[in-house]
Amino acid sequence: MERPAGFGVRLLANLIDGIIVGVILSFITFLFYGDFYKEDYTITDLLSTLYLIIVPVVWKGYVIGKRLMNIRIVKKNGENVTILTMILRVIVAGLLYGLTIGIAFIVSAIMVAVREDKRAIHDFIAGTYVKSEREF
């Protein structure tokens, strides 16, 4: 594994992605439901999940925030991610984070901050890591 991306750049990429995609999904929610926010599971929840699974496969490990921060998700061996990889990373890991009431998510953040390879629980489940594309 070469040039693993650290906690700060990954956090910033997720925040950027959340803002950009969140605004778009809010408008879609408004079109479907007449309001910018719905508490119940909606079509935009499905679109958000599909975005996190499909876009990195099509865009070679990038989503909007990661592209802007010049980092991407790759398999541990450096190959591009697949649909199965992203399902493991998003859905299976998401279920684990939910089942542990967020404790596994906090552990993952600590892992990215302190581990040399910067891998979180979802990276171990999917066999991935987040690679910095910048040369230092």
Features:
single chain; about 140 residues; mainly alpha; two-stranded antiparallel ribbon; 6 helices; 2 strands; globular
Describe this structure in words.
It is found in: Cell membrane. It holds the Pfam family RDD. It comes from Pontibacillus salipaludis. With 136 residues, this protein is mainly α. The chain has one domain. It is built from 6 helices and 2 strands, in the order H-H-H-E-H-H-H-E. Helix 1 crosses helix 2 (43-58).
Compile the SSE list and pairings.
Blueprint: H1 7-33, H2 43-58, H3 64-69, E1 71-75, H4 83-99, H5 103-114, H6 121-126, E2 128-132
Helix pairs in contact: 1-2, 2-4
Describe the structure in brief.
The protein has about 140 residues and is mostly helical.
DSSP E strands, number: 2
| Straight-line N-to-C gap | 15 Å
- What order do the strands of the largest sheet run in, or round the barrel if closed? 1-2
Query: What is the C-alpha radius of gyration, as a whole number of Å?
Result: 15 Å
How helix-rich are the residues, as a percent range?
Answer: 55-70%
Outline the biggest β-sheet: 2 strands, antiparallel
The structural class is: mainly alpha
Strand content bin: 5-15%
Question: How many domains, as an integer?
Answer: 1
* Low-confidence spans: none
- Total number of helices: 6
Coarse morphology: globular
Mean pLDDT score = 93
